[in-house]
Specification:
The structure is a homodimer. By secondary structure, chain A is an alpha+beta fold. The first copy, chain A, folds into two domains: 2-95, Alpha-Beta Plaits, CATH 3.30.70; 107-243, Alpha-Beta Plaits. Chain A is 21% helix and 30% strand. The first copy, chain A, has five helices and ten strands, in the order E-H-E-E-H-E-E-E-H-E-E-E-H-H-E. In chain A, helix 1 (27-39) crosses helix 2 (72-81) and helix 3 (137-145) crosses helix 4 (195-207).
Chain lengths: 244, 244
């Protein structure tokens, strides 16, 4: 049996998240439906990790087992032909039997997009989070560097989620700007539930002057969800790439 | 009575065009409704020119007469508070009584966005036109230069539209690229109905190798809609700026 890896782009604003749910349109249910229309096989896809309703992906990775003989290019085109335009398979390849998008994953890159103009954007309102108060980007750039390295990010995960190992390593952080937009980029070996959105909320508090960059190490060390900033909304968040 | 000029951004994919139509949600009807909620006045806005259903604007200009005493900042915030997020007033100012967005207009800038990747974008599908066949951008850059200057653009307007003066001057043309995207930018003293979309369709024919850059002068000279390329869809088109 073949093991197929696919890179998937999707518009999270259109779906109730990635994971299948009864009677809800999700990215997983749409992809499984399209695969069935092409191969006549009932498959369950694996994926690198869930994304919440509203979160988009440029490079989500999924896999499935199939007996189809279709070459990868034809398979990609055929599945895309059965998907709505809000989900696009950008690449398909055959991988080894033991490849699993989650268990084989070595790291991920996320981006969070803030629009920091006075009134926000009508055209891109669904693709970014609007913060009308002027943010101090230089302070945010200082603050984000404290997140690099290996830390226990217990204070930066949604409260109520499971209490297993919350140590993660962030390899690289970046803040880029273009006109009124601020792009927060995090690359790490893994991220806890809501971790990127809580880090972003904390960085916004720095940008607003509510806390200082040098406060970040203490906030991480406290391991207390209440010390970190708020969880910013999902629609500014993008899963950019998954590393293997 | 005050004469108010406003700069408006809107997401054209959400509306049946700019101009008011019975029983349809249009940009004009929404703005007039919001003004009425703020000022209690029934106004009819003037605008720099219609945009079709699907066409977005960063910098449409509208004006209206009012007796309100609200300062411009408060007026802007109040009108935005009564609009959906798919229309945003980006600026409000008091202008002279004889200012009219269309009659006072000295020129306009439009942009058309093409996504030239193999499968297009799931996230930005409503903001750009997907052309999967690889386009030769260097040839398109040569071709677009022939549109600069003063020409009779009779062949580049929707057939069936009125036959009045079709001479227009294009001051500046540009083609920019970023990754798989191609941005076609035209600045001129005015544009005929569908003119930017037909010029773009013709440039795509150049990019596909169906015609050569040096064919453009003859196509313009022919003044025949059938000689020019097809009218590309509205959702890649943006009214960027209106000059006074």
């Amino acid at each position: 049996m073949r093991n197929i890896k696919m890179i998937v782009e999707y518009d999270g604003s259109r779906y109730y998240g990635l994971q299948k749910q009864p009677n809800k349109e999700t990215v997983q249910s749409e992809i499984e439906r399209a695969i069935k229309e092409v191969t006549s096989e009932e498959v369950t896809i694996n994926y690198s990790g869930r994304t919440d309703a509203g979160v988009s992906a440029y490079g989500q990775v999924v896999s499935f087992k199939t007996n189809t003989n279709l070459p990868v290019d034809k398979l990609c085109m055929a599945i895309n032909a059965h998907l709505k335009k809000s989900i696009i398979i950008q690449d398909v390849e055959d991988v080894q039997e033991d490849f699993h998008p989650r268990y084989s994953c070595k790291g991920k890159k996320y981006m969070y997009v803030i629009n920091n103009s006075k009134y926000g954007s009508a055209i891109y309102r669904k693709n970014e989070y609007h913060v009308p108060q002027k943010l101090d980007v230089e302070k945010m750039k200082k603050a984000i560097k404290y997140f690099e390295g290996t830390h226990d990010f217990k204070g930066f995960k949604a409260s109520g989620t499971s209490n297993k190992d919350s140590v993660r390593t962030i390899y690289e952080t970046q803040i880029q700007t273009k006109d009124d937009r601020i792009y927060i980029i995090l690359r790490g070996n893994g991220f806890l539930y809501n971790m990127v959105r809580i880090i972003t909320g904390t960085l916004i508090d720095v940008g607003l002057g509510k806390i200082q960059p040098k406060d970040i190490p203490n906030i991480i060390e406290a391991k207390d969800r209440k010390k970190a900033g708020k969880t910013v909304p999902p629609h500014g968040l993008y899963l950019m790439e998954v590393y293997y």
